[in-house]
Specification:
CATH superfamily of chain A: Cytochrome c oxidase, subunit III, four-helix bundle
Strand order of the largest sheet of chain A: 1-2
Helix content of chain B: over 70%
Number of strands of chain B: 0
Order of helices and strands of chain B: HHHHH
Shape of chain A: globular
Structural class of chain A: mainly alpha
Number of domains of chain B: 2
Mean pLDDT of chain B: 86
Shape of chain B: flat
Number of strands of chain A: 2
Structural class of chain B: mainly alpha
Helix content of chain A: over 70%
Mean pLDDT of chain A: 90
Strand content of chain A: under 5%
Oligomer: heterodimer
Low-confidence stretches of chain A: 1-7
Largest interface: A-B, 58 and 60 residues
Radius of gyration of chain B: 20 Å
Number of helices of chain B: 5
CATH topology of chain A: Four Helix Bundle (Hemerythrin (Met), subunit A)
Largest sheet of chain A: 2 strands, parallel
Order of helices and strands of chain A: HHEHHHHE
Low-confidence stretches of chain B: 1-11
Strand content of chain B: under 5%
Radius of gyration of chain A: 21 Å
């Protein structure tokens, strides 16, 4: 490589170097995460606003079994983050077989979360008669905000499981690099991170013994 | 380009298995504390403050260790997070209005 070419590569203003020392895929995912974080923030703010302005906001989550149930869901997501970080760690060390195994474990925890969440939804719909537009407590906004917030999160989890499935398949076939696994990991950890705010605000603040 | 990407990947080892386990245990313990607080049925304001405090700590741990931000250049953090926090704080401008709305309904 000539001296002139090296000089261009070294200059940030010429676009020849990475100003954040990360690749464009990872930076793109970070930008997506920040914009998605604002979406969830807006939904959580709307939920909190409506809750504060409604005198008799319902508390449908009985400690046993609802809160215990949602705590197990939280455990699933937290554990899936650990397995995902182990997948990234394995890929960083070039161990593709271990990477696939850790990603499959992450997907299993993710599917476990979705299964538990759907069970909880069905319990609310069938036993407590809560729908997005109606409930027995006379606060229809509860159902609307609850299903919108948790539904959007569950959609993210389902998309994440599909995304990880594609990554695992490709990594197993010797395709994709470390950065691809790391970027999928960033998305998965973000899904976990959002739940760290939904769980206390929606469930724990509406718990009763 | 691919060589350059590989070089970046190798540079970002960031964290060990033991440190990830510690973070996972810390997250589980804090979740346990949150559930315990819900069981104790504390006054709403204390409960909200404690839960949000713990959630912010949990989020910071996930971002720093699991999302590797601790091991990235500080400029990445400065580009992304002050703006996010500012936008979230700006959203809170609506909150006093919810109390006004509650008081109007009570009248």
């Amino acid at each position: 490589m000539s001296d002139a070419k090296v000089a261009v590569m070294d200059s940030v203003w010429q676009g020849g170097t990475h100003p954040y020392a990360i690749n464009s895929k990872k930076f793109g995912m970070w930008l997506f995460i920040i914009s998605d974080a604002l979406t969830f923030s807006a939904l959580l703010m709307a939920y909190t606003y409506l809750r504060l302005s409604t005198p008799d906001w319902p508390k449908p989550f009985i400690f046993v079994p609802s809160i215990i149930f949602s705590s197990v869901m939280t455990f699933c997501l937290l554990s899936s983050s650990l397995t995902m970080v182990m997948a990234v760690h394995s890929m960083n060390h070039g161990n593709r077989k271990a990477t696939v195994r850790w990603i499959l474990a992450t997907m299993a925890f993710g599917l476990g979360f979705v299964g538990l969440h759907l069970t909880e939804w069905l319990n609310l719909i069938n036993n407590e008669h809560v729908t997005p537009f109606h409930n027995e407590w006379g606060v229809p906004l509860f159902g609307g905000t609850f299903f919108a917030l948790t539904g959007l999160h569950m959609t993210h989890v389902i998309i994440g499981v599909i995304y990880l499935g594609i990554i695992a398949f490709a990594v197993g076939r010797g395709k994709f690099k470390y950065e691809d696994v790391e970027v999928s990991g960033l998305y998965w950890h973000f899904v976990d991170l959002v739940w760290m705010f939904i769980f206390p605000l929606v469930y724990l603040m509406s718990a009763r013994l | 380009m691919s060589d350059h990407s590989e070089a970046i990947a190798v540079e970002h080892v960031g964290g060990t298995t033991v440190s990830f386990l510690y973070v996972w245990v810390a997250l589980l313990v804090m979740t346990g504390i949150e559930v315990f607080l819900a069981y104790e049925q504390l006054p709403t304001l204390i409960m909200l403050t404690a839960l949000m405090g713990l959630s912010v700590i949990k989020a910071a741990l996930i971002i720093a260790y699991f999302m590797h931000l601790k091991f990235e250049k500080f400029s990445l953090f400065l580009t992304l997070f002050p703006m996010l926090v500012l936008c979230i704080l700006l959203m809170m401008i609506f909150m006093p209005d919810s109390i006004r709305s509650l008081l109007m309904r009570a009248q």
